[in-house]
Specification:
226 residues; mainly alpha; Arc Repressor Mutant, subunit A; Tetracycline Repressor, domain 2; 2 domains; 77% helix; TetR family transcriptional regulator
Length: 226
């Protein structure tokens, strides 16, 4: 008598299924890497810890990334591309240019409080980018210039609308982003300091709420009409 074990036979995955699994695993590894990196920086980050954070075997991480430098290059490019695309899309919206800057500052500063690893990534990466690329392979100045281009164009648009004060557009965009970046770092550090001092969640939220508004105002001061 023959027996059929059809229920035990597994069909091979399709190319689409394999690609979906690859994307999911890569995303899990990158998300784990950004948290480990935010805590330790590049030199002290280890593949084993990233694998543990992602809930994956160490060997599986090496299956997707041949070494730590390759992994962190992809992480760097992933975060930078995502940030650049969000910024470009945001400032291409219709409406008051000043309002776009106001909304942008609130979104990115709020992200610091909700996802502090992202803010710490930007704080650390400027010190560690030389581990990933040679000076010929990557120019921070060129990247920043490209990143700020949508803001520069929005400043010019705001000048035409008379919702933003007159000035050198590229310089004002850089000053705005500088104020936002410093504010993000300040909010994150203050939150850590308050937690270390034993402040309650309510006390932390109350202090951060006031500081948050000050950070937004300091960034908008750069472009506010006189």
């Amino acid at each position: 008598m023959s027996m059929k074990n059809e229920g035990l036979i597994m069909s091979p995955r399709t190319k689409e299924q394999n690609e979906e699994i690859r994307k999911q695993r890569t995303q899990e590894i990158l998300q784990a890497a950004i948290h480990v990196y935010a805590e330790k920086g590049y030199a002290a980050s280890e593949i084993g810890e990233i694998a543990e954070r992602a809930g994956l075997a160490r060997g599986l991480v090496y299956h997707y990334f041949k070494n730590k430098q390759t992994l962190f290059r992809e992480l760097f490019e992933y975060v930078m591309e995502k940030t650049q695309q969000f910024t470009k899309t945001h400032f291409e919206q219709e409406g008051s240019a000043f309002d776009l800057f106001h909304t942008y500052a609130r979104i990115v500063c709020r992200q610091v409080l909700e996802e502090p690893a992202v803010s710490r990534f930007f704080t650390r990466i400027s010190l560690d980018v030389h581990y990933l690329y040679t000076a010929e392979q990557f120019s921070p100045f060129k990247w920043v210039k490209t990143f700020l281009q949508p803001m520069t164009q929005a400043v010019e648009k705001g000048m035409e609308q008379k919702t933003i004060r007159t000035g050198e557009a590229s310089l004002m965009a850089m000053q705005f982003w500088g104020a936002v970046s410093q504010g993000m770092n300040y909010l994150d550090q203050t939150k850590q300091d308050l937690a270390d001092q034993g402040a309650t969640a309510q006390e932390i939220n109350e202090q951060l709420k006031e500081l948050f508004e000050q950070v937004i105002e300091s960034a908008l001061f750069v472009i506010r009409p006189e």
